[in-house]
Amino acid sequence: MYATPPDRQSAAPAATATATLAALAAAQFAVTLSTSIVNVALPAVRDGVGLSDAGMSWVVNAYGLAFGALLLLGGRAADLLGRRRVLTSGLALFAVAAVAAGLASAPWMLVTARTAQGVGAAAIAPAALSLVMRLHPPGPARARALGVWGAVSGAGGAAGVLLGGILTEGPGWPWVFHASGIGAAVVLAATVRLVPADPKEDTGSRPRLDVVGSLTVTSGLVALVYGLTAAGRVGWTDPLVLGSFGAAAVLLALFVRVERRRPAPLLPSRLLTRGAVGPANLVMALLGAVWVGLFFFLPLYQQQVLGVGSLEAGLSQLPLAAANMIGSGLAPVLARRLGPIRTLLAGLAVQAAGFLWLARIPSEGTFLVHLLGPVLLVGAGLGVAFVQLTGSAVGGVEPADAGLAGGLVNTTRQIGGAVGLAVLGTLAAARTAAASPDLPHTAALTEGYRGAFLLSAAVLGVGAALTPLLARRARPAPESVPATPPAPAALRPSNRTH
């Protein structure tokens, strides 16, 4: 018998850790992909199911509402019930709901299926992020893992637009949903096979889930997001919009009151005062606002102004996805050399420069001349900033709150995106309406898109101004991610020291 060579002994755990990270990253990719894959397919979906123009928006909004409003609940459920258990349950629901959406033959069936898909996504995102943090110890291993996480999060949005165009022009719009369901099923199988079960201390005796807090915050966020999405369609002074905002204010105030009296609240105050969690989530909300706006307005400009087809608009997202992946991979390296705060500032500044460039787009432009350069800047800056903010938002929390921290950072990004899209959409519509009547319609639309991109650059400037808050409260670690319990031995890098 011969002893196993040292290099082979270390290769197996490393390969296992890589495969596990790939499975968790694929779960996050599926969530972000489903946010954007429907965009270019909406006209075909409308004709296929018989949706009205108003109902067409709910194919997107039903998913976003359920996803954004239930993320906190999903994160806390992961902490209390077990992260792997919640992740696999969410993937199963997500896959079944996606296939059901593709089989829908009536508007109510489609909207119901998309709502269920959003519920599944709200369980997937925080549980997967929490597992990434638990299975990768602080230092280079965690920095690389967060780099991968940032790459797939940004690339998922761009890939969704591309895949949506390919499937819509190929097998047809139902496959936009079927592909998501099949992908989630594959990820579910990989998760069951590769992700280790929760330690006993994670699934033992735990406080009960805060049902009252969950209901009030979920209802409040649904009312808020509904009001914001409706405002872009019917106006900010519509009674329905004002009523939604009023209900949101009452419900969220009630949530704060309830949480102060609960022995085990859904959102403990200690979480927001721990390290840089609070400021990082605030800046992440601003980043989410411009992120969602970019994937909404860029394809519209290409299709409505430049006259390209859905497939060509989707293919043009590839440089954005590649730049995002490169930026996410460079983020840990830059953080070690420049420090986390300077790296975050650099990412925000590069994005702002790209949006300022986009604010100069012409009505008779081309992708290579007028879009490629700014898209590369925005993608790279987005990758760098997202990795740094995610690390700050989930680092420094107690292990028992890891899932909740993951849910919170995803919630702020989703709610920030809803607020940002409503504001940016209103501004773009107002600028288009105020354009000279002598201008062609495409030129008037371009004026609106320019205004949206200019405001996006200003939002990133506000985010940069808030970064000193992270510097004062973050730990002085190169990756800005404090320690969590070590990974199981099978997933622990061979050069790890204790």
UniProtKB/TrEMBL annotation:
<feature type="transmembrane region" description="Helical">
    <location>
        <begin position="240"/>
        <end position="258"/>
    </location>
</feature>
<feature type="transmembrane region" description="Helical">
    <location>
        <begin position="453"/>
        <end position="471"/>
    </location>
</feature>
<feature type="transmembrane region" description="Helical">
    <location>
        <begin position="116"/>
        <end position="133"/>
    </location>
</feature>
<protein>
    <submittedName>
        <fullName>MFS transporter</fullName>
    </submittedName>
</protein>
<feature type="transmembrane region" description="Helical">
    <location>
        <begin position="415"/>
        <end position="433"/>
    </location>
</feature>
<keyword id="KW-1133">Transmembrane helix</keyword>
<feature type="transmembrane region" description="Helical">
    <location>
        <begin position="279"/>
        <end position="301"/>
    </location>
</feature>
<feature type="region of interest" description="Disordered">
    <location>
        <begin position="476"/>
        <end position="498"/>
    </location>
</feature>
<feature type="transmembrane region" description="Helical">
    <location>
        <begin position="341"/>
        <end position="359"/>
    </location>
</feature>
<keyword id="KW-0812">Transmembrane</keyword>
<keyword id="KW-0813">Transport</keyword>
<keyword id="KW-0046">Antibiotic resistance</keyword>
<feature type="transmembrane region" description="Helical">
    <location>
        <begin position="54"/>
        <end position="74"/>
    </location>
</feature>
<dbReference type="InterPro" id="IPR011701">
    <property type="entry name" value="MFS"/>
</dbReference>
<feature type="transmembrane region" description="Helical">
    <location>
        <begin position="207"/>
        <end position="228"/>
    </location>
</feature>
<dbReference type="InterPro" id="IPR020846">
    <property type="entry name" value="MFS_dom"/>
</dbReference>
<feature type="transmembrane region" description="Helical">
    <location>
        <begin position="145"/>
        <end position="167"/>
    </location>
</feature>
<feature type="transmembrane region" description="Helical">
    <location>
        <begin position="173"/>
        <end position="195"/>
    </location>
</feature>
<feature type="transmembrane region" description="Helical">
    <location>
        <begin position="86"/>
        <end position="110"/>
    </location>
</feature>
<feature type="domain" description="Major facilitator superfamily (MFS) profile">
    <location>
        <begin position="20"/>
        <end position="475"/>
    </location>
</feature>
<dbReference type="InterPro" id="IPR005829">
    <property type="entry name" value="Sugar_transporter_CS"/>
</dbReference>
<feature type="transmembrane region" description="Helical">
    <location>
        <begin position="313"/>
        <end position="334"/>
    </location>
</feature>
<feature type="transmembrane region" description="Helical">
    <location>
        <begin position="371"/>
        <end position="394"/>
    </location>
</feature>
<feature type="compositionally biased region" description="Low complexity">
    <location>
        <begin position="489"/>
        <end position="498"/>
    </location>
</feature>
<dbReference type="Pfam" id="PF07690">
    <property type="entry name" value="MFS_1"/>
</dbReference>
<keyword id="KW-1003">Cell membrane</keyword>
<keyword id="KW-0472">Membrane</keyword>
<dbReference type="InterPro" id="IPR036259">
    <property type="entry name" value="MFS_trans_sf"/>
</dbReference>
